[in-house]
Amino acid sequence: MAFGLYIHVPYCTVRCGYCDFNTYVLGSSDALATYQEALERELELATARLEAQGLLPDDGVSTIFVGGGTPSILGGEGLAQILAAVRHTMKIAPGAEVTTEANPETTSPEFFSTIRAHGFTRVSLGMQSVAPHVLRVLDRRHTPGRSLDAAREALEAGFEHVNLDLIYATPGETDDDVRRSVECALETGIDHLSAYSLIVEEGAALNRKIAHGELPRPSEEVMADRYEIVSDLAEQAGLHWYEVSNFAKPGGECLHNMGYWRSEPWWGAGPGAHSFVGKRRWMNEKLPVRYAARVSAGELPVKSDEVLSDEDRYVEEVMLRLRLAEGIRRDVVKESGQAQIDRYVDAGLLEVEGDRVHVSMEGRLHADGIAADILFID
Ligand code: SF4
Fold first, then answer.
1. What is the mean pLDDT of residues 52-75?
2. Atom 2 of ligand 1 has which residue's CA nearest to it?
3. In this predicted model, what pLDDT tens digit does every residue of 190-232 receive, in sequence order?
4. Nearest Cα to Cα of residue 8 among 56, 54, 77, 64
5. Could you tell me if residue 128 is left (phi over 0), alpha (psi between -120 and 50 degrees) or otherwise beta?
6. According to CATH, where is 3.20.20.70 located in the chain?
7. Tell me: the pLDDT tens digits for 84-121?
8. Is 171 helix (H, G, I), strand (E, B) or coil?
9. Which string of DSSP letters, residue by residue, matches 232-272?
């Protein structure tokens, strides 16, 4: 059974206007040292808990994903230290996928060589766009070319698996901006591309500008057109879609994220991280100081948790699996949803392949709505 480990790094150098993640502007290097110490303590506590329950595979975790925030703020040696802590506690299974996210402006050729030498196998870089005016709206400080250079540096350092993250449908962006961003990303030789439409969370600064009419809110038609541009260019370059927003060359799929989408277990370590093990899901203390205080007192830093009912798990499974190219086994869907499946097959939004059903190209744009309909969720 695959078992994933997510590690949350809750610090960034600046706070971007659209961001709603659990991340804080780094005040001092002391904060990083406190964080690393607390994280290592949580890994010890987590290992003891999982081993006592017989839930940790004997050979260790099969995927690790260091996300944030800005993991690269720790530098190559800081990330290597985290991996060493995992090796001493949960253990890392042979052939495990080990990813870190990185912000292009906090990376260098040396950074990539260091983390590659210490066992990272995959890098995921925030790119967003090559259009300077789009990056400005998003408050991103990197120059348009920096993310592309960072991807090339990662490839040159020996990483086979490199992802660039794009955001489309930012206010003020044009079709050409999206086209150019995808083309430039693909020209670097990466094997994975993620493209999400901009979701402006309520608490984000950008939301206030849109609400006050200072920036336009892109329509659903615009979002659909932009998605098609991304998808067409990615497929032409040999990156097939395997999840609605994710494209990869064969073998380049992100196994850690596949674990989430297939409802496999994972432990989330770090402030505000979420975990899902057995039928239980929980979230850690979000504030780094509170998180550190709890773990240094020898407690798991759980802030809230819930036990998922069979119905909750069924709803999640349908919602997540219908976003995957591999789709869902039709017999997993309850009788109540079968007529809806037939209706969407007739409408060309779902396709049947053997005992599975998956969204068509047009259906991809409506995957969440189709799943909700099958589940009778308003
Ligand atoms: S760098 Fe990423 S995580 Fe940090 S504030 Fe910006 S969008 Fe959020």
1. 96
2. 69
3. 999 999 998 777 777 777 888 888 888 778 899 999 999 999 9
4. 64
5. left
6. 4-261
7. 999 999 999 999 999 999 999 899 999 999 999 999 99
8. coil
9. HHHHHTT-EEEETTEEE-TT-S-HHHHHHHTT--EEEESTT
Beta bridge partners of 161: 122
Atom of ligand 1 nearest to the CA of 15: 5
Residue range 4-261, CATH number: 3.20.20.70
Residue 12 beta carbon below 6 angstroms from any ligand 1 atom:
yes
CA dist 376 and 337 (Å) reads 8
pTM across the whole model: 0.94
**CB-ligand 1 contact for 15 (6 Å cutoff):** yes
Q: What average pLDDT does this structure show over 178-198?
A: 97
- The answer, yes or no, to whether any atom of ligand 1 lies below 6 A from the CB of 69, is yes
**Token representation of residue 7:** 């590690």
Q: Amino acid identity, residue 15?
A: R
Overall residue count recorded for the chain in this entry: 378
Q: How far is CA 104 from each of CA 23, 107, 293, rounded to the nearest angstrom?
A: 17, 5, 32
Distance CA 378, CA 357 (A): 22
